[in-house]
Amino acid sequence: MQDDVQTRPSRCAPGYADKLFASSPPQAAQASLAHVIDMHQLTKDPELVLTPYVATPSSPSRELDRFALARYLDYCSELLAITSKLAVLYLEYLDDARVLSAVNDIQSLCNGLSNKIWQKIMILDTRALHGGADAPRPQA
Q1: How many CB atoms are located within 10 Å of the residue 39 CB?
Q2: Domain range holding 19?
Q3: In sequence order, which ranges of 4-65 are alpha helices (DSSP H)?
Q4: What is the C-alpha separation between 8 and 18, in angstroms, rounded?
Q5: Is the pLDDT assigned to residue 3 strictly greater than 50?
Q6: For 69-95, what is each residue's pLDDT tens digit?
Q7: For the chain, which terminal residue's Cβ has fewer other Cβ atoms within 10 angstroms, N or C?
Q8: For residue 73, which of 110, 27, 119 has the smallest C-alpha distance?
Q9: 94 vs 12, 99, 102, 106, CA distance in Å?
Q10: Per-residue pLDDT, 140
Q11: Structure confidence by residue, pLDDT tens digits, 16-27
Q12: What are the two backbone dihedrals, phi and then psi, of residue 77, each rounded to the nearest 5 degrees?
């Protein structure tokens, strides 16, 4: 069985994964790290902190209040910034057009994911400015 990363189906834009995996493994690892950071914040929805919700048996536990959620999301954004900056360090040692292209892709990916995270933070901050209280936590 051949394990070729370029033949695997991708949810990314056409050519994006091919460019990353063909350039070098470190850039591919950084793109993967950015996606892992994004996956960890996906269940951190500000609306669930600000409005009551009914948990189901398969719902993830949501134990963060507004302050803790904003701090968690801020940390995710900082991790994405560090990931983006690490990609740039490769350009100091590998001055290559393919590496430059991969670094640009990683920076665009991290910037886009960070923007989504900051939208969540802005929802939390806007509600705090208007005096909204945290929604009551459902009883387990």
Answers
A1: 9
A2: 15-51+61-129
A3: 16-23, 25-41, 46-50
A4: 10
A5: no
A6: 999 999 999 999 999 998 888 777 777
A7: N
A8: 119
A9: 25, 7, 12, 16
A10: 46
A11: 555 554 545 667
A12: -65, -40
Q: Residue 131, by phi and psi: left (phi above 0), alpha (psi -120 to 50) or beta?
A: left
Residue % of the chain over a pLDDT of 70: 72
Domain for residue 5, yes or no? no
The total number of structural domains that make up the chain? 1
Report the candidate in 62, 42, 47, 60 with the shortest Cα–Cα distance to residue 113. Answer: 42
- pTM score, whole prediction: 0.69
19 lies in some domain: yes
Query: Domain for residue 135, yes or no?
Result: no
In a domain, 36, yes or no: yes
Q: In Å, what is the CA distance from 36 to each residue of 29, 40, 105, 128, 129? A: 10, 6, 16, 29, 31
Q: Are 112 and 29 in contact (CB under 8 A)?
A: no
